[in-house]
Design goal:
The chain is mainly alpha-helical and about 80 residues long. The protein has 2 domains: about 1-30, Phosphoribosylformylglycinamidine synthase subunit PurS (Mth169, Chain: A); about 35-75, no CATH class. The chain contains 2 helices and no strands. The longest helix has 16 residues, at about 45-60. The protein starts with 8 loop residues before the first helix and ends in an 18-residue tail after the last helix.
């Protein structure tokens, strides 16, 4: 997701479009990306650590984005 302190023009466009379509009560839309990875790992903790390393090195831009990592069916850690 874009960092909270940064402008999100795509989120603002979606917010305005939803309001124009009559959806009331919509405030502060943020638009990000969702990635699903299938990993083979020795343990759930190893899978999480590897996924975080992938995000840090390639999948997320640490300057402009924040991310969460979760195992299938679990809350993000």
């Amino acid at each position: 997701m874009p960092r909270a302190a940064l402008l999100d023009p795509q989120g603002q466009a979606v917010e305005h479009a939803l309001q124009a379509l009559g959806f009331e009560g919509v405030a502060r839309v943020r638009v990000g990306k969702h990635l699903v990875l299938e990993l083979t790992a020795a343990s759930p903790d190893d899978a999480l650590a590897r996924a975080r390393a992938m995000c840090d090195r390639l999948l997320a831009n640490p300057v402009t984005e924040d991310y969460d990592v979760a195992l299938d069916g679990e809350a993000p850690r």
